[in-house]
Design a protein that fits this description.
About 60% of the residues lie in helices and about 5% in strands. The protein contains 14 helices and four strands. The chain has a domain of about 280 residues. A hairpin with a 7-residue loop joins strand 3 and strand 4. The protein has a two-stranded antiparallel ribbon with strand order 1-2. Strands 3-4 form a two-stranded antiparallel ribbon. The chain is mainly alpha-helical and about 425 residues long.
Length: about 425
C-alpha cells in the first residue's frame, strides 16, 4: 500500500524522498525492520494474552531432559510470525506482482490450517488436533494453486540463459533469449548447462511433451509443499530450532530471488533470468525479520511456542518461495535440516514395522524421532535402537545451535552450487 502511494506521489507530485520506495533494497530493509518491530512489540502483548487465557502447551513425559519444564508454555505463537510477515508485505511490496500474491496466499492458507490444528488441540482438548487427512488435503490444495498459477499466469515467465564461448580474456559469456517465455525449466545444481526442463523427460511424447511436463511440474510442486511444510512441523520440537533454521534459509532464498530477478547478476551466475522475482526480496526481508523477532521470545528457554500455526506456515513459505524462483531442486541442500528430520521419522516408523513383522518385536533405528530428540535422550535407556550414541543426553541449547551450524553450512553450499558445475 505504501509502495503504491509513494510511487504515485513521486510520479505526479515529485515529493522529495518518495522515490526511495522504487528501490527494492530500501523496501527490503524497511520490511525487515518493521517485521522485527511487529514481532517483538506486538509479540509481547500476544504472549500476555495467551497466558491470560491459559493457552498452554500440553506436554507428554517422554523421558527427555528438561521436557516437563515446558508444560504450560503459551502456544499458537505462530500468529506473531504471520502478522509480522503480512503487515510489512502489504505495506511495502507491489501488490500487483503475481509472485507476491502467491506468497501472501501461502502465508494465509497454511496459517489457517495450522491455527485450526492448534485450536482443536488447545480449546477442544483433542491431542490429535486436525485430522492428518485434512492437513494433507490443505497442503495438496495449496500445491495445486501454486502449480496452476505458475502454469496459467502470463506474468510468470523466464528468459533462458544461453552460454556462448568468449574471447581469450573471458572463457565464457552468457546471452539471453530475445523474449520471455512460459517454460517448465528449473535450475539444477552441479551441472554445466544447469537448466532442467521437465518436458524433456517426455521427449518421446512429441507435441504433448510440454503438456506432460507441466503436469509433472504440478505434481512436484504438491510433493515439495507437503514434504517441506511437514518437515518444518516435525523440526519444531526444541526452543528456537525451526525459527533459527527458517531465518537462515530465508536469507539464502532472498539472495537467490534478487539475483534471479536482476539480469546482470543472473548473467554473471549463468542462471535463467526471472522478471519480477526481485520483488520477492521484500517479502524475504519481512520473513527474516519476523523469524528473528519471534526468536527473541522463542529462544531457550522459550516464552512461547509457535505451534502448527507457525511451523506449517514457515515450511510452506519456504517451499513455495523456492518453487517460484525455479530453485526447487536446491531444496534438498538448503532445507537439509527439515528433510533429515522428516526422513528420521520415516526410517524410524518403517524400521519398527519391518522388525515387528520379522521378529515379532518392533525395534528402533534411533533412540527417538524426530532426530533432534535422539540427541536429547540418554543412550541405553531401555530402548532397543541401532544408534545409541551419544550416550549422554545433550543440553537442548547445544542441540539447537549445532543444528543451526549445519543449516548455515548447507546454506553456504547452496550458494556455492551456482558456480560449481
Amino acid at each position: 500500500m505504501l509502495y503504491h502511494l509513494f510511487t504515485y506521489l513521486d510520479k505526479y507530485f515529485d515529493i522529495p524522498g518518495a522515490g526511495m520506495f522504487n528501490y527494492i533494497s530500501f523496501r527490503t530493509g524497511l520490511a525487515f525492520i518493521l517485521a522485527l518491530a511487529v514481532s517483538t512489540l506486538i509479540g509481547r502483548r500476544i504472549i500476555n494474552y495467551l497466558q491470560k487465557k491459559q493457552i498452554g502447551e500440553t506436554i507428554r513425559d517422554l523421558g527427555l531432559e528438561g521436557q516437563m519444564s515446558k508444560k504450560g508454555t503459551p502456544t499458537m505463537g505462530g500468529i506473531i510470525i504471520i502478522l509480522a510477515i503480512l503487515i510489512p508485505t502489504l505495506l511495502l511490496t507491489a501488490l500487483n506482482n503475481t509472485y507476491t500474491i502467491l506468497m501472501i496466499v501461502t502465508t494465509v492458507w497454511l496459517g489457517i490450517i495450522g491455527f485450526t490444528d492448534d485450536y482443536i488441540k488447545v480449546f477442544k482438548k483433542d491431542k490429535k488436533g486436525l485430522s492428518g487427512k485434512f492437513k494433507i488435503i490443505g497442503q495438496v490444495g495449496l500445491g495445486l494453486i501454486v502449480g496452476l498459477t505458475m502454469y496459467l499466469s502470463p506474468d510468470i515467465v523466464i528468459r533462458e540463459n544461453i552460454e556462448v564461448k568468449g574471447d581469450k580474456t573471458r572463457v565464457e559469456d552468457v546471452l539471453y533469449a530475445k523474449k520471455d517465455i512460459k517454460s517448465t525449466k528449473t535450475t539444477i545444481p552441479f551441472f554445466k548447462n544447469n537448466n532442467l526442463d521437465y518436458a524433456n523427460l517426455f521427449s518421446k511424447a512429441g507435441e504433448n511433451a510440454q503438456k506432460y511436463g507441466w503436469i509433472l511440474f504440478v505434481v512436484v510442486v504438491i510433493f515439495i509443499v507437503t514434504a517441506i511444510s511437514n518437515g518444518a512441523n516435525l523440526t519444531d520440537g526444541l526452543d528456537g530450532l525451526v525459527t533459527g533454521s527458517s531465518a537462515i534459509i530465508g536469507v539464502i532464498l532472498g539472495i537467490l530471488a534478487y539475483v534471479s530477478g536482476n539480469i546482470n547478476y543472473a548473467g554473471y551466475l549463468n542462471i535463467m533470468y526471472l522478471p519480477g522475482t526481485g520483488e520477492l526480496l521484500v517479502f524475504a526481508g519481512a520473513f527474516i525479520g519476523a523469524t528473528i523477532g519471534f526468536l527473541w521470545y522463542n529462544a531457550f528457554p522459550a516464552q512461547v511456542f509457535m505451534g502448527d500455526t507457525g511451523s506449517l506456515t514457515l515450511g510452506g513459505i519456504i517451499s513455495v518461495f523456492a518453487i517460484a524462483i525455479h530453485k526447487e531442486l536446491l531444496i534438498p541442500i538448503l532445507c537439509g535440516v527439515f528433510i533429515i528430520e522428516n526422513l528420521s521419522v520415516v526410517l524410524q516408523v518403517g524400521y519398527f514395522k519391518l522388525t515387528k513383522l520379522k521378529y515379532g518385536e518392533g525395534r528402533r533405528m534411533f533412540k527417538m524421532a524426530p532426530l533432534h530428540h535422539h540427541f536429547q535422550k540418554k543412550g541405553n535407556s531401555g530402548i532397543n535402537a541401532i544408534f545409541q550414541r551419544p550416550m549422554q543426553a545433550m543440553p537442548e541449547s547445544r542441540i539447537v545451535i549445532r543444528f543451526w551450524i549445519v543449516g548455515i553450512i548447507l546454506a553456504a553450499v547452496t550458494i556455492i552450487t551456482l558456480k560449481i558445475r
